[in-house]
Design goal:
The complex is a heterodimer of chains A (326) and B (329). Chain A has 326 residues and is an alpha/beta fold. Chain A is built from 11 helices and 12 strands. Chain A is globular, with a radius of gyration of 21 Å. Chain A starts with 6 loop residues before the first strand and ends in a 5-residue tail after the last strand. Chain B is 30% helix and 26% strand. In chain B, helix 3 crosses helix 4, helix 4 crosses helix 6 and helix 6 packs parallel to helix 7. In chain B, strands 6-7-8-3-9-10-12-11 form an 8-stranded mixed sheet, with helices on both faces. By secondary structure, chain B is an alpha/beta fold. Classes of the chains: A alpha/beta (326), B alpha/beta (329).
Chain lengths: 326, 329
């Protein structure tokens, strides 16, 4: 974090709505408001954790930032370029510098391609290397993710989940990107393997000066790896702050409930802890509640919360909350 | 001394596959007391689910085969029961909740019909009685407007609600043992907390014993009285829950706990990681199955598989090395 204040990614009021079509003439009858106005920044060299439950829009946000989904509204700045207005080819060139790691290491690798072809493909498609050069670079990348270069001619099915995730990581850093979106990269892995991969992410960040957007639902892992954490709920960011601030001084009632629901590996802890158990389920993003998104499950909501949407405002320096009661 | 409800000795299960025989469970012994919750912890492929499925003879045979073992349930060996006897035990006296609430309900049958089935089969209820009891059960697991929701199909329920329905069905015949196989793994953390809380409440009300299978050391800490840690088809450590977390002793248990980030930690520490990966058991291990990944490994570990030995009251460990001193015991 040498360049403390340099902003690498700035997201302004990003919205991603997926249309719902019905009937014979496929008329649009509504929209799933997966992401409904989020704004945040990611500084160079830092890791921003994006947490929330399934359906909160965290993956959609990550994908929209590198335009794997087309944003419905809003602006995304990467370095000094505005991404939403770029043409397809211009965006493709930008992706040299912004890459993605996917959740499922079984589905994200082509089973008919060898490791050399998988990891070397970005080099080939951007015309950065050919022939022998690719072999050399792939060997180097495999070493960086602690895999043997001897594996180069093998196929994905010969590897375990953890090893496959390493292959996905090697592919994503092949172009020397400065920004990587990690979409639940450890959720599908066993506990003992998760720690290996997290340590690898940290080593690579240090060695290659990477900036991460780390999407996850495991709050304890997110605290471990992130510098700042954003908590999403039903398409909006409920709270965002430094890692220690958000875990020791959560302000939004949703963050409080989410933190208290984390299972802790300490039986003594449960004897003293008062858990906040939220009632009910997350409402559908196709038909979100009026006003504050969280009010239907919020223990402290009142009539005011149903009327208007709370502004995402800075309470103390660097600590943002969207709640009327704070 | 509390009453022993289930006592399993030397259970071995293996699977014949085209690639060879997989030794999934390699001779495990454990017991379950009345009203007790036993947590069974381990990573994928460690044999935790297969061992519990074996007890209920829910392992597909072939390719599965229960090679040896005794599962004494109130004086009768479950593994020697006829299919007909077993059917009365399953769902009646021992009930099971599975991991995936999306696939364990029949999508083309209403919740009410699915709930009535075990009641009519095991308890001989007629339709009206079954419906009345189903409504009670749904209310007990916290489903609002239970009477109306009986007419709904599974897709009209959310994931957490479906898991509640699964629990309600499992409890419908007042089982003495509830086996829960990763019941919260597919759920979000706030919903997971709801289900754990519900299970603890129902346990207090109904007094059943629970076997809770999970890979999550956090969840198990919140619900279990006693914990068995499995690796490579063996129980490698077993202990009362508090003692396990206060004095984890087997190198694998130490590694698992160490690889979890501490939520209270202010500064970033590098995570402890266990090198390598869990074994695929094409051969029954002759040595300690954890030896290739173990930081405490000594010569002895490569020649013999340690048995589960007591180290203090109720705390058993299968390891030749005393991890506190690093020397052989």
């Amino acid at each position: 974090m040498q360049t403390e204040n340099e902003v690498l990614v700035r997201v302004e009021d990003l919205k991603v709505h997926f249309p719902i079509y019905r009937g014979v003439i496929r008329r649009q009858v509504g929209a799933v408001r997966a992401v409904d106005g989020v704004s945040f920044t990611i500084k160079k060299g830092e890791t921003v954790g994006l947490v929330g439950e399934s359906g909160c829009g965290k993956t959609t946000t990550g994908r929209a930032i590198i335009r794997l989904y087309e944003p419905t509204a809003g602006k995304i700045f990467f370095k000094d370029t505005e991404l939403v207005s770029l043409k397809t080819e211009e965006m493709r060139m930008m992706r040299k510098d912004m890459q993605m790691i996917f959740q499922d290491p079984y589905a994200s690798l082509n089973p008919r391609m060898t490791l050399r072809d998988i990891v070397g493909e970005p080099l080939l498609s951007f015309g950065l290397a050919s022939g022998k050069q690719i072999d050399e670079r792939v060997a180097e990348l495999l070493k960086m993710v602690r895999l043997s270069p001897d594996f180069m001619l093998r196929y994905p099915h010969e590897f375990s989940g953890g090893q496959r995730q390493r292959i996905g990581i090697a592919r994503s850093i092949a172009m020397n990107p400065s920004f990587v979106v990690c979409d639940e990269p450890i959720s599908a892995l066993d506990v003992s393997i998760q720690a290996q991969i997290i340590n690898l992410f940290e080593d690579l960040q240090r060695d290659l000066n990477l900036t991460y957007l780390f999407i996850a639902h495991d709050l304890s892992m997110v605290r471990h790896i992130s510098d700042r954490v954003a908590v999403m709920y039903l398409g909006i960011i409920a709270e965002m702050a430094d890692r220690n601030e958000i875990y020791t001084n959560p302000l939004h009632p949703y963050t409080k409930a989410l933190l208290s629901a984390i299972p802790v590996a300490d039986p003594v802890y449960y004897e003293s802890r008062k858990r906040i158990i939220l009632e009910g389920d997350v409402p559908s993003p196709a038909n979100p509640p009026s006003g504050c998104r969280f009010r239907t499950r919020c223990p402290i909501a009142d009539e005011h919360c149903a009327e208007s949407r709370p502004e995402f405002r800075e309470i103390t320096p660097g600590h943002f909350v969207a709640c009327f009661k704070v | 001394m509390t009453n022993e409800l289930l006592n399993v000795q030397d259970l071995q299960t293996r699977f014949k596959t085209p690639e060879g025989i997989i030794h999934a469970v390699n001779g495990i012994s454990f017991h379950l007391n009345e009203g007790e919750t036993l947590g069974v912890v381990g990573e994928s492929g460690c044999g935790k689910s297969v061992s519990m499925l074996s007890i209920l003879k829910l392992v597909a045979m072939p390719p599965g085969e229960i090679v040896s073992g005794v599962a004494d349930f109130r004086g009768k060996d479950l593994l020697k029961m006829t299919p007909e006897e077993m059917r009365h035990v399953r769902g009646g006296q021992i009930a099971m909740v599975f991991q995936d609430p999306m696939t364990s309900l029949n999508p083309v049958m209403t919740i009410g019909k699915q709930m009535a089935e075990p009641l009519m089969l095991h308890l001989g209820f007629n339709k009206e009685q079954a419906q009345k009891r189903s409504i009670e059960l749904l209310e007990q697991v916290g489903i609002p407007q239970a009477a109306d929701r009986l007419k709904d199909y599974p897709h009209q329920y959310s994931g957490g609600m479906r898991q509640r329905v699964m629990i309600a069905m499992a409890l419908s015949c007042n089982p003495q043992i509830l086996i829960a196989d990763e019941p919260t793994t597919a759920l979000d953390v706030t919903i997971q907390a709801q289900i754990v809380e519900l299970t603890i409440k129902l346990r207090e009300q109904l007094g059943m014993a629970i076997i809770w299978i999970t890979h999550d050391l956090g969840v198990v800490a919140s619900i279990a009285h006693r914990v068995a840690v499995m690796y490579g088809g063996y129980i490698i450590e077993e202990s009362p829950v508090k003692d396990l977390y206060a004095n984890p002793t087997h190198p694998y248990t130490l590694g698992l706990l160490g690889s979890l980030p501490q939520i209270q930690a202010q500064s970033r520490q590098r995570l402890y990681s266990i090198d390598g990966m869990p074994p695929v058991l094409y051969r029954k291990p002759q040595a300690c199955p954890f030896a290739p990944r173990c930081k405490f490994v000594v010569e002895h570990c490569w020649h013999e598989n340690p048995s589960l030995e007591p180290i203090s009251d109720g705390h058993y460990v299968a390891c030749f090395v005393d991890t506190k001193t690093g020397r052989e015991r």
